Structure formats: structure tokens, C-alpha cells
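Record 1 of the preview.
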Amino acid sequence: MDIPAVLALFDREERQEIEFPGTTKEITSHIVRFLRPAPGMNYILYSDLDEASADAVIDEQVAYFSRIKRPCNWKVFAHDRPADLVQRLAARGFEVDETDTVMVLDVAQAPDSLLSLSTANVRRLEQPSQLADVVAILESVWDENFSWVHERLGSHMAIPGYLSVYVAYVDDQPASAGWTYYNKKNFASLWGGSTIADYRGRGLYTSVLAARVREARRRKVPYLTIDAGHMSGPIVARHGFEVITHTTDCTLKIDGEDGTL
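->
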């Protein structure tokens, strides 16, 4: 894989040109931001800054979101300028999350380890009413409220070809889940990737991954991306995903408004 070329394509298509249902996209001379209706989280996905402009632009964003009394997530990528952007955001009140690794699979080169793996226990959900299984998995794994999944993913399932949600079952009990967003260009993105603790070590995460890779291959999508954490990174690396950059979420909370990712 030509990583610099893929990264440049990723920056253009997945950070600047991308559109999201139910959001308002705003483009300024320095940033691309997306606004969701409350209580959804607003976010800055792309910035074009340098040493001279960064502080003023950060202050502008803090002032803007303070004025509308809404939180904001600024997604900083390792190759964004200036190099100390995360530190500058932290100095202005943004809470810094753990860094994830952005990894990409060249779908045409997907390995046999995924293409030949049995996915008999994995089902693609067909109706929003089935999302209760996804919520049960996520809440067990992360011990947080994921009720927003019903509205967010449910509405996206109604958009033809946009979202595919998969669940792996053990004895008809939901055990592992993950979903894929198709953005109609060169990339599709993998999200969710969670397995209930009691069911780990059985290859369920990989089975859900395999089902999503096969769908992307059938749909002739060139690249699959994932924001991989410390648990998922080693797994997807074994199956052909390569690192293209890293990303850190920096969240500005306004007057106790946490928002919903």
C-alpha cells in the first residue's frame, strides 16, 4: 500500500469532503466542523493551521461553542499542524482522550485468514428493532448508556446502502457487535467492535470483522478504515490492516453539557 497516497486521499475524502446525515457542515478558512442537534456531540474533523494561526483559531472555536452553549470534539490527527496542537487545545480547556491508531485495509488484498473464516454465527441486522442486541453488548462492555444507538443507527439503517450492522451470537445470545459506514467514495469505516467479556477468546471479534470485510469486497470498496485501540489494533494488524496515522479526541465541555457521541 502506498501509505502517503492513501493518507492524502483519506484527508480529502474522509475529513474534508465527507457529509453526515443529520448534521450541518460548516467550512471556514481553517477548519471543517459538523453540528448535530442537541444532545449530539459537535465535532471538528479537519483543520489547516500553522504555528502563527493555531492559537487564534482555537480561541475562535472556544468562543463559538461557548456562545451556542454546546460541546465540541476536536479530532486531531498525528500529521496535523502544528505538532503541538493537542497541547494547545488542552491549555484552552479541552479534555484529551487516549490516542487511537488509524489503520487501513486494501480490501482487494484482504487475506485468506478473513475471506475463509466461518461467519455462521454472525448476522447482519435488518431492522432497527434489532439494535437492542447491539445496545446490550455495548453497555456490558463499556458500562455506559448507549440508548442513543437506537435513534442514531436506526435512522441510518433506513438510508439505502449507508450502514451495515453485524452481531455475533452464542446460543442465540448477542455476544459481539460491529458496524460499517459506507461513504460512497473510496473508503468505508469500521465502528463498534465490542465483545462481551464472558465471550472473549472465541474469535467473535474476528468473525464480525470478517463479515464486514467480505461485504466491502462484494461492494468493491477500495479501503476499509478503523480507529483502532490497544485491543483491536493487534487483531486487525494480523489481518492486513496497516497504520496510516494516529488520532486523539479532544473534547470541550460547555457548562456541563457532555453531548452524545
